[in-house]
Amino acid sequence: MVYKTNDLGNPPEGHFFLVVHLQGKDKKTADELFSTIKAVEKVANSDREPDTLTYQVSRSEDDGETILVYEEYPNKAALDHHKAQPEFQKFAASFQPLIKDINVRYYRKD
């Protein structure tokens, strides 16, 4: 499923995890995606986002085109704050033409 810019669907109430799998169209676009998301990761793990509890980016060693983003938030307000950051806005505005596929899933922390 391909999402519109900045549309990550609706998270569950309360504490949740967000898992995103992105696949670049090719190795070059995956490199560009990864670089942009790493800039988002740096901010997410800084004092600018105190309520982003976890933000990790990994890349598949199998194909080099698949990127995993694993996020944890105490509530929707924390995710909204994350999405308002300039680095995320840059990613949101540019990722659509670079991806072959995207899968976004929320998991409630029970």
TrEMBL record:
Transmembrane segments: none annotated. InterPro entries: ABM_dom, Dimeric_a/b-barrel. Residues 16-107 form the ABM domain. SUPFAM superfamilies: Dimeric alpha+beta barrel. It comes from the Eukaryota. This is ABM domain-containing protein.
